[in-house]
Design brief:
Shape: globular
Strand order of the largest sheet: 1-4-5-8-11
Helix content: 40-55%
Order of helices and strands: HHEEEEEHEEEEEEHHHHHHHHH
Strand content: 15-25%
Number of strands: 11
Largest sheet: 5 strands, mixed
Number of helices: 12
C-alpha cells in the first residue's frame, strides 16, 4: 500500500540521514537499552521491493516500498518503522523487512542456517480506534510449532511533552503537533497546540545552550516542526501563527541550494556510470540528500543522460 503522507515520511527520512545520533535515545527508551548518546551508529542500506496496487479505476500501478530505518549499534540491529495511519499490511511488511535484515547477518553451514531477527517497533504518529498496541508476526511450521515475533508499538499521542524532553526523544518532537490535526484544520481554538509548540521551542533552545543539541540539530528540529505544520494546515488561517512559534519558515540559503544541486548532479552521473537504473538513482537521491520523490525526479531529468 503506498504511503499517503509524504511530508511525514520525508521528515523522518531526513532526520535519519542528518541526525542519526538523536535516535539513540529512542532505541534506549523503546528497547530498554542504555547506550551512551555518543555511541557509534551505523545506518544500514534500506533495501526496497516492488508491489502491485489496484487504482481507483481498476488498473494497476507499481509502488516501491522502502523500510524506514535500519540501525546497527554494536552487535544489535533495530528496525524503526514510522507510520501516520493504520495499515493492515504493516505486520507482513515488518516480516519482509526483518528477513531482508536477517539475510545480511545469517550464519550457515552444510545443512544448517541461523537467522538472527532484528528488534523492531512501529512508531504511530497518529492514533485511531484501530491503532494496535503491538505488532505480532506468528511463524507457524509444518510440525505444529508456532513462534510469536512481537513488539510493542510506540503511539506518540500517548506520550507527554515532558516525557519526550526528559527522555531526550527528539525525533518525536516534529510529529507531536499531529495530535491537534483536527483543531488546526477545522477549529478556531489552537491555544493548546501553540502552548505545546512554545514549550518545545523553549526546551530545544535550553538544551542547545546546555550543549545537549548542536546548532544544526536545533535549527533542523524547528524546521521539521514547521514542515509538519505547513503540511497539516495547507495554507489555512492557522498556519502563520503556528509556524511563527518556531521562528517562521526555515528558508534555504542560495549556497545550500547550490550544494544540493551539486550533490544531486554527482549522484545522478555516478549512478548512470555504474549502471544503476532510474529507480535506484531516485532512491539514492532521497537517501543521500533527503529529497522528496518529486524533487528527485526533477534532478534525475535535469542531470541524467537520456538513452540513445
Amino acid at each position: 500500500m503506498p504511503k499517503k503522507t509524504p511530508d511525514y515520511d520525508n521528515v523522518f527520512k531526513t532526520m535519519k540521514i542528518k541526525h542519526k545520533r538523536l535516535f539513540v535515545s529512542v532505541i534506549n527508551d523503546v528497547f530498554g537499552k542504555d547506550y551512551p548518546l555518543d555511541v557509534k551508529v551505523d545506518v544500514l542500506p534500506s533495501e526496497g521491493y516492488l508491489t502491485e496496487n489496484e487504482t481507483a479505476d481498476g488498473s494497476t500501478e507499481i509502488e516501491e516500498q522502502i523500510s524506514d530505518f535500519l540501525i546497527k549499534i554494536r552487535d544489535e540491529v533495530y528496525l524503526l518503522e514510522c507510520q501516520s495511519y493504520d495499515d493492515g499490511s504493516m505486520a507482513i511488511r515488518i516480516a519482509e523487512y526483518a528477513f531482508i535484515v536477517a539475510r545480511q547477518f545469517a550464519v550457515w553451514d552444510i545443512g544448517k542456517a541461523t537467522i538472527p531477527m532484528p528488534q523492531f517497533t512501529v512508531i504511530y504518529v497518529k492514533r485511531t480506534e484501530k491503532t494496535p498496541k503491538a505488532t505480532t508476526i506468528t511463524f507457524t511450521f509444518p510440525d505444529g510449532q508456532s513462534v510469536d515475533y512481537k513488539s510493542d508499538n510506540v503511539i506518540l499521542e500517548e506520550l507527554t511533552r515532558e516525557y519526550i524532553i526528559e527522555k531526550k526523544l527528539f525525533p518525536y518532537i516534529p510529529f507531536y503537533i499531529a495530535r491537534y490535526e483536527k483543531d488546526i484544520l477545522y477549529g478556531d481554538d489552537i491555544d493548546a497546540a501553540v502552548d505545546d509548540l512554545e514549550y518545545f521551542r523553549n526546551e530545544i533552545i535550553r538544551l542547545n545552550n546546555e550543549g545537549e543539541l548542536s546548532d544544526g540539530e536545533m535549527a533542523d528540529l524547528m524546521g521539521f516542526v514547521n514542515t509538519i505544520i505547513t503540511y497539516i494546515t495547507n495554507g489555512n488561517k492557522n498556519e502563520e501563527r503556528l509556524v511563527n512559534v518556531m521562528g517562521g519558515r526555515i528558508i534555504e540559503t542560495q549556497t545550500e541550494i547550490w550544494m544540493k544541486q551539486g550533490e544531486a548532479k554527482m549522484i545522478v552521473e555516478l549512478g548512470q556510470e555504474v549502471g544503476l537504473d532510474d529507480l535506484e538513482i531516485l532512491q539514492k537521491l532521497q537517501e543521500k540528500i533527503g529529497l522528496s520523490l518529486e524533487d528527485a525526479k526533477v534532478y534525475l531529468e535535469q542531470y541524467g543522460k537520456q538513452p540513445v
